Amino acid sequence: MKKIIVIFCFVAARTLWANDSDVDTRTDVSLTLSSRPEAQAAVTQSFTFPFLRGEHPLTAGNNINLKLGANVSPVSFNVLADTVWTPIAFFTVSLGAKIGSGWNYPLLGSPMKGMGIYRRYAPPADPPEGVNGSGLDGAVWNTHAGATVQFDLAALFPGEWNHVVMQVYNEISCQRYTGAQGSEQWYYENDDGVNQNAFSYYLSALLGYQMPFFIDLAGVMFEMKEPLYNPDTGKPLTNREPEMTVSIAADFKLSGRITIMALGQWRNKLLHPITAGHGRAWEFFRAACIATYRVK
Predict the structure, then answer these.
(1) Count of CA atoms in the C-beta half-sphere (13 A) of 14
(2) Spatial distance between the Cα atoms of 144 and 198, rounded to a whole number of angstroms
(3) What are the distances in angstroms from CA 99 to CA 32, 172, 185?
């Protein structure tokens, strides 16, 4: 059995690294602007290795994609790594991790809550809630595993105008803030402040249309994130409505190196105070623009 495993590892390594010219590298720099008081600059380095490719159309593009990245915003910075394996054209498996930290400060009279424990203040305090400290008192880390099922109508009916695409992604993650204990709730990157050290489930579903001109993709996406279980307390977290987001997006391909994505998002945002049953209501969340430049 050990010999079989060694032989398999050797063949896999030869398949993966036998020809350096088959390794595709890509460096992207992106800038995100939003109608909310947020912005983000990011850099991503990708390596795509051919892996266990076959002659069948479903396996001809088999690969492993490794992404290393970093981003910084007015309230946080993060570094991340993700690995995506494509064993067959319509299915991928992914593993990843991220770690970062944040800071807090006032901006035009509004608190910018990068990282910290959520605190509810006694009346007549205004606002009635806030974040402890100035931030940078720990780290937030996340590990996740996911799987994607994807489909392109052009695979059945070839044609440059037949790219109706669908993609469904499911993920289980574990996220922790080193400054939180037990059931303490905490903020990260100006969110709603209901995070706990917990396992969570995330779902995204995309329906889009790819076009062979400067509007590269237009579509609608649904996202849902629901906390499942807090290992610190040993209790499930299924008594609250999941956070859901609906997005309408269009991706503009300005050149071989420059793309711009514009999107509008609606979310079932929390009704404050967040300690009062975690009630939510749908409303417009933000308009955003993401510009990406492919360095090489």
Answers:
(1) 6
(2) 12
(3) 20, 17, 18
Mean pLDDT of 217-221: 97
Q: First-to-last CA distance in the chain?
A: 43
Q: What was the pLDDT predicted at 55? A: 80
- The pTM of this model reads 0.88
In sign, the C-alpha dihedral spanning 15, 19, 21, 25 is positive
**C-beta of residue 187 within 8 angstroms of C-beta of residue 197:** no
- The Cβ-side half-sphere exposure at 58, using a 13 Å CA radius, reads 8
Longest dimension (CA), the chain: 72
Task: Determine contact, residues 279/271, Cβ cutoff 8 Å.
Answer: yes
Residue with tokens 């290795």: 49
Q: What percent of the chain has pLDDT over 90?
A: 68
For position 18, what pLDDT does the model report? Answer: 43
Can you tell me whether residue 9 is helix, strand or coil?
A: helix
Q: Quick one: 63 exposed, middle or buried, by C-beta within 10 A (0-12, 13-18, 19+)?
A: buried
> Residues for the chain: how many in total?
296
